[in-house]
Specification:
Elements: E1 29-32, H1 37-48, E2 56-59, H2 71-81, E3 88-89, E4 93-97
Parallel strand pairs: 1-2
Antiparallel strand pairs: 2-4, 3-4
The structure holds S-adenosylmethionine.
Length: 99
């Protein structure tokens, strides 16, 4: 990122299942691309309550029959818990917009 002049972004190497998302400023946007059921579910659970109204999370791989299965199941479970509508765009991106 530094080589390409990206200065307002930092990367954190971590296991999302154990990372303390409370240490971050609440995000207004998140692209979640961790492929599998457990990490997708953990991030959605860790972030959802902290999101401001209008915040958007986009979950990649929300499609049946992909090589790494589970993102769609985690997405559906979490939107179900919060009574949110299912919105899959471009065939595989699960969108969550915090009311
Ligand atoms: C499809 S790749 C993401 C690619 C990325 N969006 C990009 O454009 O470079 C999925 C990534 O999720 C990571 N991943 C899976 N489980 C994880 C976890 N528990 N914590 C952190 N990363 C995880 C994998 O290591 C892998 O690099």
């Amino acid at each position: 990122m530094a080589l390409n002049g990206v200065t307002r972004t930092r990367s954190v190497q971590a296991d999302v299942n154990t990372y303390d998302f409370g240490a971050l400023e609440a995000p207004s946007f998140c692209l979640l691309d961790v492929d599998l059921y457990r990490p997708v579910r953990s991030v959605l659970e860790a972030l959802y309550d902290r999101l401001p109204s209008g915040a958007i999370i986009v979950v990649d791989d929300c499609k049946d029959g992909v090589a790494f299965d589970g993102a769609l199941q985690a997405y559906r479970e979490v939107i179900g818990l919060h009574g949110l509508p299912e919105r899959i765009v471009h065939g595989k991106l699960g969108v969550i917009e915090k009311p």
